[in-house]
Specification:
The chain is an all-beta fold. The protein contains no helices and nine strands. The strands form two sheets. A five-stranded mixed β-sheet has the order 2-9-8-4-5, with no helix packed on it. It is elongated, with a radius of gyration of 16 Å.
């Protein structure tokens, strides 16, 4: 009796990053990443090395390999380095977004 092992495929981003360089204060930040791999990777959103969780300010969606992070009413405190970290037993892939919020100059 031999067990058939499924070939492991490390996580891979299958879309091109599409993100504006600057976002106006009060707008929404929408970060997207489409990920494939075997087994299906787990995906985590991280800002400045802190894991993000859903809240009234932050909406995290995933479906069919597409992962979206939406931050509503963005302000200067939301500027920073965001990462989409995809992980499975075959490896880890990271996509980095550098988010800069333009505040009103008084």
């Amino acid at each position: 009796f031999r067990s058939v092992r499924e070939k492991l495929i490390p996580p891979m981003f299958t879309d091109q990053p599409d993100f504006p360089d600057r976002i106006e204060e009060g707008g929404s930040i929408v970060l997207e990443a489409t990920v494939s791999g075997k087994p299906v990777p787990t995906v985590q959103w991280v800002k400045d090395d802190t894991a993000l969780e859903g809240s009234p300010h932050i909406d995290i969606k995933d479906g069919d390999g597409k992962h979206t992070l939406i931050i509503s009413g963005a302000g200067p405190k939301d500027s920073g380095i965001y990462k989409c970290v995809a992980n499975n037993p075959a490896g880890t892939s990271i996509r980095t977004f550098n988010v800069s919020i333009e505040g009103e100059n008084i």
